[in-house]
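Practice problem: Protein containing CheW-like domain
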Amino acid sequence: MAHSQVESIRCLLIPVVEHNLLLPAGVVAEVVDYQEPDPLPDHLADQEWLLGFAGWRDQKVPLISMEAVMTGERAAPSIRARIIVLKGLGQRSQLPYFGMLTRELPRLTTLSEPTVERLDEFAPQPGIHCQVLAGGEPALLPDLEEIESQMHTVLFG
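Answer key — structure tokens:
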């Protein structure tokens, strides 16, 4: 007698603003200590959500603030801030990786489909796909494809 096995996925809960973002661990290349990013060129200074470029493995990756994506306002990095280096999803050769600022070290969790429930009463926010209960804890699913697309347009036209 065959029985179905519930597939689980390793995820990261990433603290931003008053929320946690939920990302599958497979899109995360590395979590590194915070470093002050290299500034943006003057013509990009009005992009509040784009913080500059962070050094990572002998390359410069664009660094974003999800707080600024969501609210339009940057939050100052905390003493426990980290940079989460994400793999680009859009197959864009100029943007294979980008960084996301987080207030502190993300938490690793393992979830399965029955432990994730989409919340319908979610008010749309920029950069956010939807809100879920992940293992009973509220979390936001970022729209990484949209964020990456905007970043590509701003940086490369």
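Discussion: Residues 144-156 form the longest helix (13 residues). Students who identified this feature from the tokens alone can consider the problem solved.
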